[in-house]
Amino acid sequence: MANASYRDFDATELFCPNCRKAVPVRKRLLLVLAEGDRYDYTCVYCGASVGEKMVTRGDGDGLTFLVE
Ligand SMILES: [Zn+2]
């Protein structure tokens, strides 16, 4: 796969501490900031927040993934 495809990469499975396994997640736009958009990922089974992603604008690959 070309590296460019990672630009629009969305995590579809993350580890949920409640379910104790990798689970499908729902993506939710949390905040729109000057530097980018912040997304929240919640477990589809228990609704727990399992991760966040900050998608920054401008620099191209300023994609940072934060897992709590
Ligand atoms: Zn869960």
Number of helices: 0
Major sheet characteristics: 5 strands, antiparallel
The level of helicity is under 10%
Ligands in the structure?
Answer: zinc ion
Task: Jot down its keywords.
68 residues, five-stranded antiparallel sheet, 54% strand, binds zinc ion
Describe this structure in words.
The chain has 68 residues and is mainly beta. It has no helices and five strands. The protein has a five-stranded antiparallel beta sheet, with no helix packed on it. A hairpin with a 5-residue loop joins strand 3 (36-43) and strand 4 (49-56). It is elongated. Bound molecules: zinc ion. The site of zinc ion has 8 residues, from loops.
Please summarize what this structure is:
This protein has no helices and 5 strands. The protein has 68 residues and is mainly β.
